[in-house]
Every structure is written in C-alpha cells, then in structure tokens.
Amino acid sequence: MYDIIGDIHGHADELTELLGDLGYKLQGGHYAHPQRTAVFVGDFIDRGPQIREVLQIVRPMVEAGSARAVMGNHEFNAIAWSTPNPAAPHRYLREHSDKNNGQFAATCKQLTDDERADAIDWFRTLPMWLALEGINVVHACWQPSHQETITAALKQYGGVTTDFMVEATNHGSDLYLAVDDVLKGKEFPLPEGITYRDKDGNLRTNVRVRWFESPEGKSLRDYALPPAPLAPDTPLSESMVDTRAVYAADAPPVFLGHYWLWSDRPTRLATNVACVDYSVAKDGILCAYRWNGEQELIDKNFLWVASRS
Prior knowledge:
Helix content: 25-40%
Shape: globular
Largest sheet: 6 strands, mixed
Number of domains: 1
Order of helices and strands: EHEEEHEHHHEEHHHEEEEHEEEEE
CATH topology: Purple Acid Phosphatase, chain A, domain 2
Strand content: 15-25%
Mean pLDDT: 93
CATH superfamily: Metallo-dependent phosphatases
Number of strands: 16
Number of helices: 9
Structural class: alpha/beta
Radius of gyration: 19 Å
Low-confidence stretches: none
Distance between the termini: 31 Å
C-alpha cells in the first residue's frame, strides 16, 4: 500500500516528522517501512530552508525502492533554468528573469554548483506521472492525451534531454501544452481587466481550474482551484467548456500536489481525487494520504504535520 506525500519545498524537519508518524524508520541510509511505499508528488526544492536535506532524504528512498516519486513543476523549471538555449548563446531555456531567479534563489543559495548539477541530473530521471497498482499520481493534472504526447517525445528524444526540453519550453508546441498542463495544471483566462496577485505577489490573468470535474453549468469562480473569490460568477463561455480531461468517477484514485490548498483539516476534492499540497512553505501543513486500497477516498486517511517555519 502507498503513503502519498505532498509538496515538501525544502522542509526536511517536517518531512522527517511525517515519515516517523507514518511508521518509516531510518535503516541502511534511507527511510523505509516494512509493508508500505511512500510516493512523492514532486516539488522538493525552492522556498524552504533545508533543500539539501530534503534531497538527502527523498533520493535515497527512491533509489532504494522504499519510495516512488514524480517530477513537479519546480524540478522541471530547475532543469530549464539550468539548460543553455542552443539557439541563443548566453541564454537559458527558462529565462533568468528577476521572477524566475527569485523562485530558484533558495535552491541556488543552499546547494553548491556540483550539488545542483547532480540534482538536475536526477530530476531528469523522474517520471511525470505514475500509474501504480490501484492509484494514479501526478503533480497537477492527469490527462491521457497529454501523457501520450509526452511519452512520444520522451521516446523520440531519449528522455528529458536538451532536445526534449527545447521543444517542451517552446510555447508554440504540443509538447509545451502537454507538459504545462500535467505539471502546472489546466488554466482558464480571466475576463479582460480582471487580475489578481498570487501567493508570491505575481500578477495573474489566469486561474487554475478543477479539471477533474465537468465545467458544464459552472462559473469560473465555481471551477477555480484553489478558490478564486475575484473570479466572475457568470457561466463559463462555450470555448471553455471542454470535458475531455474530466476524470471518470470509476477511474483509480488520483493524487495531486501543486495547488497550495489551505486548511487545518485536509479533505478530498472528489470521491477519487485528492490533493496533498497544503502549503507547508507558507505556514501550512505537510500532508500525506495513507491509501489502503479503497476506491472511494476517506478524509480520515489524511495525516499531516504543521510547518515549523
């Protein structure tokens, strides 16, 4: 059975405490449980004060087989930020702008150049989703058509290589759209003139949405994830109503991170959909879901520890 653990963002003390609460013990240089496997939903780096320590916990667990992990958007961004653009000397596939540099600043400060390069090499090996026995795991959005696009590109380019990253960061490509949705979540645009500031103070013109539900008959305010009180309470336009990504109620439970939810008691998003990101890097909680084979997820199976920052 699996213990799905949310976005850690450099909070190793909370991770150690949570693993202990889940019954994982340090043995042979890594944490392990005698009957269970941890599954990490990505976003190990950035923001927090113990990025090196998080990697020193998570990576040995994955390499020893006591854990599985998927890539988060912060790992993908780190690869792109660190990969020179072959078509533009002295530039990178993720622009070294003030915003992007700020997002990556804690990782750059805490890891040496060699440590960062080694971490980037490991990030390239992480899958973007996992279909495990009985559950699915992805950082932000489970969409089979996008997974087909990504799988074909991985085969074409031989993995998350420079050529793969060039196409995946080209805003005009199908691969860009696929990776962007899978790792960052499907978004809908706000009406012209309506904007908001996100958790980092960046101005936003789009909102992430509840892609696992049908948008039919909903407003952008209803459909936003996390809630967006400033979004209009009028029906979605016909161009936004697209049910191809709706997650079937009889599909295996799917677990997500990414969405910076906020609550002192985590709850499922649907009978077979759960997010385990509850904003540990913003004074929230580090959250896990202890899955025991159930098709219908149960709120009492969430476990968590409070942020110490």
